[in-house]
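User: Please predict structures.

Assistant: First:
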Amino acid sequence: MDIKKFEEFISAFPIYEYRIIDTKKISIEERVRIICQQECERYGSTWACPPAVGSLDQCEERIKSYPQGIFFSSVAEVSDLMNMDEMLLSRKDHEALTTEVGDFLKNAGYEIYILSTESCDLCDPCAYIEGKPCRHPDKMHPCLESHGVVANAIVEEQQMEYNLGGNTILWFSLILFR
């Protein structure tokens, strides 16, 4: 990757922090998948969530088939962190940013795979519920957790910020590339 070109590109966007990471160092944890299954209302209802994304072994194999990834965050400010609707609306800007970074890498000739925030909410209802293929596979970004990725473990290892305090939210994405 031409780091200089990438840094010129990325500096034009409201990315808080980013790191280029080796995918071999990404830890895939079964406990994350268990939390998805037990606590997330989206489990089993979207192409971006388990079990539709594949087994944990398949997800790990997919991640590790890409030698590197760009792990990055963006900041959103909300009036009240307890207002889930407002918080989730702020995610849309991060998803658009994630798509732009992915497009940059694709246009530079890389094959990419994007893991991002929460689960996809492009279609209501998701075609998964209807037993049909994803309507927007090029726009759908499975969430990091769906693949067993522990985002805060990457944050700690890479010495990045995880919490800025106040009414701010840090959203994270990982774009794998080869």
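Second:
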Amino acid sequence: MTDGLVSIITSTYNSGNYIAKAIESVQAQTYTNWEMVITDDCSTDDGPDIVRSYAASDPRIRLLQLDANSGPGVSRNNSILNANGRYIAFLDSDDIWMPDKLQLQLELMSQTGCAMVYSSYLTCNEDNIVTGMVKCRHHVRYWRMVCDNVVGFLTMMYDRAKCGTMLLPEIRKRQDWALNMAVLKKCRVAYGYTKDPLAVYRVRTGSVSRDKISLVKYNIGIYNQVLGYPMPIAILVFFFIFLPFYSGKKLINFVKTFFLPVKGMDIRKLLSSRKSDK
């Protein structure tokens, strides 16, 4: 484990249209001591070739490939197990970071002494237009994370020196929430960077997390299979704890979107202006 090195964990599957922007947002980071460990989950498009072209000119970027399509949990774990850094951060192949994301979050870790940090983030569509913002909480504890996932995974970073190497359960969906809970159970409290959004989450048609109805069984499965609640308890927790917390969060973010100054802006223009400020 290399002290000070941030290992950026990226899972990619048929993201040839977006992976270049994700990589470029990492290369634009003001904090430069990082490695990007990308695991391809048997893509059938030109995504792997695009990654290879960037890796050829930047040794901090590595491409790993699975032998069979296995889902984001398996591919993320593959990258984690091949990571060298003290800090583990996550960026999917269709998402984007702001240039100062790593620097500001490492400063927050230093100030608070915590082992896990996160931040607010913007959302955009497939045409790069900003559609909203998810405002993060100042801090979160384990019990709150059990109620509902309140940490955007593309903003989460944890310190392996303090909580060890943490892997995701190898399930198709909601494994990000499970890891957030596992890390919080060890470190007890995580802190959010609340001043500005530090990442952009792209909402894609047909993405794994897009079909909310099918996610119901996976949410209940987290309570049952990951947390070990008996199935009747898992169902009750989902309907009477998870859903109220989740619905309240969505309503708050929906209202805040009306007052978002950058809504409708091209994310590329926003990134350009953010870079010029640094």
